[in-house]
Each structure stands twice: as C-alpha cells, then as structure tokens.
Design a protein that fits this description.
three-stranded antiparallel beta sheet, alpha+beta, disordered C terminus, 383 residues
Length: 383
Amino acid sequence: MNRIVRLLILALALIVSAGPAFATETEKEAEEALNPKETIFEHLGDGYGWEVPFNHHVRMPLPVIVKVKDGGWHVFSSKRIDHGQTYDDNGTLFRLAGKDSEFKGKVVVVKDGKEFKPQFDISITKNVAAIFITIIVVVGLLLWLASWHKRNPYKAPRKGLGFIELLVTFIYDSVVKSTLKDKAPKFAPYLMTVFFFIFFMNILGLVVVFPGGANLTGNIAVTLVLAILTFLVTNLFATKHYWKEIFWPDVPLWLKFPLPIMPMIEIFGMFTKPAALTVRLFANMMGGHMIVLVLTLLIFIFAAVNPVAGGATTVVSVLFSVFMLLIDVLVSFIQAYVFTMLSTIFISLAQEHEHKEDEAKKAEKAHLKGATAPEAVTAGANN
C-alpha cells in the first residue's frame, strides 16, 4: 500500500514539474484559443470521417454519397474533402462547409463561389457506420449464444456468453414476461432487440477507439426513431378496448360530448409517450458524455492559464473522468433497461381487454332488457 502511495506522489510530482516544459508549447498554441463549446459539440456530433484518438488531423475516411440537382449521383471518399480541400468530381466541386456557413459541417456543392446543398445526401457518416457496427455486434453475439446452446443443450455458458445470457434472462423474466404475461412471446423479439441495441450503442459510445466513439444515443434523431418504433408497435397491435378508451372513455358524458375533452387528452397522451422516451434517453446519454468531455477540457483550460495549475488539474480531471466513465457504464445499462421497461408498459396498456366486472355489468343489463317488466323489477329488488 505504501509503495502505491509513493508511486502516486511521484507521478503527481512529475506532472507538476513537467508544467514548465509544456509552457513553450502552450505559448505557441496560445494563438489558437480553445473554444470548449465548439470542441464538445464537435466530439458529440456526427461527421464524414472517424477521428483517430489523440490525433485530430487524421481521420478514417468514409464514403460520401450525394446526388446533385441536374448532375446525377456522386460517390467518393471523405478523405478528398478533409481539411478544407475542394474535390473536383467530373466538373462538380465538393467541399465541407466551414464554421461560418449555413451548412456547417455538411458536404456542399460549390458553384460560382457559392455553396449549395446537394439534392440528396445518403453518405455513410460516423453515426450511420456506428449503427451498422452495433447491428453486426448484437446479431453476432445473439447468434453465437443460440448456436452455443444448440451444441450444448444441457450446459450454461460462461464468461462473455454467460453475461449475454444473464442479460437475456433478466430482461425477459423481470420486464417482458412479468408485464405482458401470455402476450410476452409476441412482443419479446422487438423488446429484446431494442434493449440490446441501445445497450451496445451506449457501451460502444464510451469506447474512444474504433469501432467506438460515436455518440448515437446522444443524437436525438436516433432516439426519436426508436421511440417511433415503440409508438407503432403499441398502436398497430392495440386492442379494440384500447381505442374505445381513447375515443370514448368511461367517464361522465359531459366530459366527452359535445366537447370531446377526455378524448383530446387521451390522444395528446398517445404522442407524449414517445416524446418522453425520446428526450429521456437523449438527455441522459448526452449529459453523461458532456460531463466527461468537460472534465477532460479542464486540463487544457487550466494549462492555458498556468502550466503548473494545468499539471495539478490533470490528476484530478483524469480521476473524475475515469469515475464518470464507470458511472456511464452503469447509466448505459439503466437507460437501456428503462427504455425497454417503459416500452413494455406502453404495449401492455394497449393490450388490455374489457375487465370482467364491466363484462358482467353489460351481461346483467342485457339480461334485464330481455326480461319482462315484472322479472326486471324482481331482479332489481334482488340486487
């Protein structure tokens, strides 16, 4: 224990003493003022290349696929438009829009010195590539688990496969089956897919090196699509009783006719559910990534002010960043779990049938209507 403490003190001393050595480098880079806001959103945003860690001047190129109005389709590598370069593809000029452009960070067509947005842009950006990678990882792991069980029907997997099976069993038994009961097999494929897709998107987003680093669930477009899928599954497979409770709920007549107050509230509630799913997942994951980036940027901010303070801040920032990354791993699981749980609850609410008490009352009313007057009076007296 004493040896570890001594090593930590020695490392801190080396970092602090190294401050003056970095002073000249900091002075050289003083002209390029650090813009924390721009740096954070640049790392959290999408792009046409995959940044190599610790070297922002090198990017893994990705395919750019655009259609220009009256010019057909163009396919080329994003490497050709890196670092402000202009690429001439058979007479059509392309480049990445600069910071001051209205198309900031997007591929634009340059004509007569002006920038124009392509008619269609279906390029494989970093986020799109990350989605494909996540799909491959999820499908690969689950098929691996299924094939292992076919070969070993009476054994339990260990290590990595054991962890995957633990997640499958936990989500299915504690969330899907316990909520949907006999309807669980019908909706389990979708709900399990959503859980693993979100979970591995979150985990890969915490990894700095390729194939990680893409902030997928911190992109509101991705979370919106997932929420829309839950909305469609919920409403397309809903029961008649569910729709009856929306358009003609069991409330006093004056609340639904002539002014449909309750139906309007119910319809509004249909759309607030996917909105809540979208914002909840997006905000939590974006916030986690942002905190880690802010803590990391503190090193450079303090180093620009005072090299010695920067050296001391490095230790604190690194420790807090590691701590936040560990918390983010837990949050990655929790957010995937919460999204799946809420989706399951919304689906289960749409699968409700008429309660037995309501059915009994209706049967009793029908019986009284069909009975003769004396019988109806007698039946009423008995009740």
